[in-house]
Amino acid sequence: MEKLRNTVYYSDNQLKNWIENESLNETLATKADAIRRNIYGDDVYIRGLIEFSNYCKNDCFYCGIRKSNKNVKRYRLTPKEILECTDIGYKLGFRTYVMQSGEDTYYRDDMIVKIIETVKNKHPDTAITLSMGEKSYESYKRFYEAGADRYLLREETSDREHYNKLHPSFMSFDNRRESLWQLKEIGYQVGGGFMVDSPYQSTENLIEDLRFLQELEPDMIGIGPYLTSKDTPFSNFPDGSFKKTLRLVSILRILFPYALIPATTALGTINPLGREMGLKAGANVLMPNLSPIMYRKDYQLYDNKICTGDEAAECKACLSLRVDKSGYKIVCDKGDVITRQKDF
Ligand code: 5AD
Ligand code: FES
């Protein structure tokens, strides 16, 4: 089936006004919510997040689990532990698992393939989303052939100079973008995204990001505010703007009516009702944590992350309540992206 995502065009000037104008939150949210209801109704998809390793060979200046942060207690889940998380998730109604980690070379491709195959054998009616950073084309392909369905890899920024201000010189802007195209070509449902108000980010950078995403046409787009992380070189930069992040969620829904857009943990961290407001601003996905509680607090990309002490079941119950109260409903299925048949 040919996918036509109906990416809607707006001028740079229009986007700039939407991004910068503090008085537009409600207008944008109303417009975005109407678009989302038209396509996805009041459905909210849930993804069970398994943070299976916080080892990382990268050193992004904004991230709390960067290689140079010696204050992190590092952990790795065994394949058995990962499988246990998926079993718990399955019983709670999760039909998508997001396997997320730092860039950890300890897990050889064979190991990841085995984990994917085991999960898929045991729970064939689920989707597996990988979020493990940059790998080779061959690795992406092997994981896909083993049964992985989706891959999340935020581009972080679509401006080369800005990228170089956020990352050490051994990390590559070109490789990141190339990875996204490779993942698409292989057949994954692909997720991109960026932080709002990351250090040195301009409105023009954000517009460039929207343009890049319009070119890529990802199935999923994850954004959240930049949040201060105390043990990083950026520890002096303030948290990003909550309201601007909400406007960007709405802008994304307006530009990408069909996209799966999460109300992220970062949004819930910057404001206690952030995820609810994210849903009302156009988001339609939530990604609660299924990781074992004993490791939760060690996966801190930024300070004060929420839900580090809650069992998966409590988290699910808490989220259901929050979603209901916001006027939506949680759906327990795979929650694939809706695509439009091309009209001829
Ligand atoms: N604040 C907010 N988001 C962050 N991420 C990493 N560090 C931070 C931070 N300090 C985001 C990045 C990454 C995703 C997993 O988390 O965009 O892709
Ligand atoms: Fe985890 Fe509320 S969503 S405790």
From TrEMBL:
Query: Pfam families from the xrefs?
Result: Radical_SAM
Name the needed cofactors.
[4Fe-4S] cluster; [2Fe-2S] cluster
Q: Quote the InterPro entries the UniProt record gives.
A: Aldolase_TIM, BATS_dom, Elp3/MiaA/NifB-like_rSAM, FeFe-hyd_HydE_rSAM, HydE/PylB-like, rSAM, rSAM_sf
Per UniProt, S-adenosyl-L-methionine binds at 156, 176, 227
| GO MF terms held by the record | 4 iron, 4 sulfur cluster binding; biotin synthase activity; metal ion binding
Name assigned to this protein = Biotin synthase
Could you list this entry's UniProt keywords, alphabetically sorted.
4Fe-4S, Iron, Iron-sulfur, Metal-binding, S-adenosyl-L-methionine, Transferase
